[in-house]
Each structure stands twice: as structure tokens, then as C-alpha cells.
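Entry:
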Amino acid sequence: MELFRIGFLTVSIVDILDIALVSFIFYKLYTVMRGTVAAQIFIGLILIIAFSFLTQALNLKAMNWILRTLTDIWVIAFIVLFQPELRRLLVLVGRNRVVRMFLRLDVQESIDEIVGAVAELARKHHGLLVVVVRATGLRTFVETGLPLQALISRPLLVSIFNPKSPLHDGAVVVRDRVIEAARVTLPLSQTSNIGDFVLGMRHRAGLGITEQADVLSVIVSEETGIISLADNGILVRGLTPNELRNELHARLSTMGDNSAKSIWSILKSHG
């Protein structure tokens, strides 16, 4: 259905929807990249695309030929240049509530054991870094550590993060009720300080993995014994064991036993 004309161009409802959808996608890409070097490259790419449309409208044949040649490698260049940002965008899609409703995790026992270990290690000022997998697998990172595949328990976590243990450096990865690996190497966040607080390697690693995967990181500072929780690139510091328990329940349990209730509520509201 034609809405109006701009010169020789006809504009329909489908065209408006198409433009709105493309604009929304580009806006979301920019919000993910904002504040990074990739944002400047992204803006440059948008300007090149706009210039390409302009040269086509003005029928600049030589320039159109050059831009068409470049177009063949744009897709590959886009993937190479924006690989970290695209991965983060896909992670954000995976964190959507609709996607999580179909995931089921047995987290109650894991939460109890993690909180118990955190309380003991914080009291002793022993460092800890535990990564709890929600949806995104961490196989690439797990392979950098020592595979365990052991049932999670407070004594096991405490022994792993004992300063005299050869496994205390690095992270422990937990999925459901299983410790998949210990001494895992994680990517460091580019954030080096939050306010006046300077992030150490353990905090930057715990924060960095939440920026790249759908996971939670529980961190205990070796220097201060302060308990922190990282989620979606945000670090919450100064938690008590009870507050940590509540946060883990709020951020993990909603994907588990409440999934069926959530789906039923949606179906009922549309019924």
C-alpha cells in the first residue's frame, strides 16, 4: 500500500517498517559499542553506507563501482572488527527473559554451598572467584583450567581456594551442582576502577567474564575479605553472606522452578 511519493520513489507501510527495524538494529549495535573504540569505527561505517546511497542517487558511476567493490568485503570486515561487540550483543539476547524461561537450573544446593564457602573464606581473608554459569557455556575458558566435574560442596571450595592449594589461583566454574573446572583463566575487564576502588586482577577477571557470557561471578577480596557479585558487567561490593544468598536466588532461581509458572502466566494473560 503506497503512502506517498518522494520524487520517483514510492514509500509504503512495508518500507516504513523496514526502515524502523534497520534503525532499531543499528541503534542497539551503537548502544552496545558506545564508549569503546569500535563505536568510532561503527560511525565511520555508517557514513560510508550513507555516502554509498548518495552516490547511487547522483548516479556517480565510478564511485559506485569502487563502493560496490568494497561492499564484497564489508561483511567479513564487520565480523572481524566488531567480534567482541557482536558476541556481547548475542549474550544480551540470551539474557532475555523469554529465552531464560526455557532454561532450567538446579541452583538451590549450589547457592547454599557457595555462600557457606564465601562466608568462611571472607572471615579468613582468603581470595575466591567462582563463576556460576546461567545459559552460555564456558567451554573455551574451562579448557584453560583443570577439569574436575565434581559435585559442589563447601569443603571442596574452601580447600581449592586455600592459599597453599595449587588450584587457588584462577577461577572455579560451576554449572548446576557441578564444579566443572578450577584454576580457570578468565578475560580481564577493561574497567580498572569503580569510583575510588581500584580493581585487582581477581575482580577484573570476575567482571570481565560477565561482560562476555551469561554468568555470575562471586568474588572475595584477599586483602579485605569484602564479598562482591558481578553480573552483566556490573560489580556490587560489600555484600554480607545473607545478602549474597538473596542476590543469587533473585538472579538464578527465577530461571529454574518458576519457569513453568512464568510460561503459564503469559499464556493465561493472553487467553
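The chain has two domains: 2-94, 108-256.
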